[in-house]
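Follow-up to my post from last week.
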Amino acid sequence: METKRMRNRLTVYHIKGGTGKTRIALNIALTLDCGIITNDEYSIVSRVISSSKCRILAQHDDFPRYPAKIPLVYDLGGKIDKRVGIAIEESRYVIVPILPYKEDIQTGLDFITEIQAINSKIIIVVNKTKPKQFDNIRKVLKGYYPYFPVFELKSSTAMSRMIWEKKSIREITNTNKLFRHHYQKLNQQFDQLINYIQTHDFEWPGEFKQSTLIMRDMHGLHALKKGNKNE
Ligand SMILES: Nc1ncnc2c1ncn2[C@@H]1O[C@H](COP(=O)(O)OP(=O)(O)O)[C@@H](O)[C@H]1O
Ligand SMILES: [Mg+2]
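User reply:
Got it. Predicted complex:
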């Protein structure tokens, strides 16, 4: 139901692991300065993003409710359970990362059909592409789902560098000439995706940029406070 959608909530979701959900969610969170919530108990998000801005749900935790003002990215895996259902339902967009291989595309297509029943604002991201792979895959995807935007993220070591350096792809790319040379393409691809999220259909970015709200209940304390960004 459209009325439940929250404009500064975004879900990155795929039933399968290894499609790049966490990297994509992290880069969006780092770039747009927002919180991140995951249902992966072994997630690395807390090693990258300050603990005040991320929350790892334990197996039996309920879906956490935060004030609508707080911009959040949900990084979710596993089958569509109650929590995943709520996240998808309230999100302005659901990003589905798929890998550029035949079986993964097939699984992705079936999976999108399921998500679509809950929220039809789907953005498909073909992740870890090698040169010249994308155009064909895009055509195939558009053949099934002409109305969903399809973005490409190439295979790049910047994705792991982001984890170690705790910096967005944009920051890493702008570090020095060498990185600018190596990571420019991925950076542009991410810019296109983020730009779409920010400009399409609703006014997410303003909310994000101005937000100084920080989540403080990573350890299950459901308390939220306005705070300063350095904490
Ligand atoms: N565009 C990319 N280029 C290279 N490696 C990538 C890319 N996206 C993800 N990876 C790698 O793939 C693995 C899975 O990524 P991850 O974000 O943890 O996926 P998920 O959260 O879906 O399980 C990680 O080792 C990550 O570094
Ligand atoms: Mg993950």
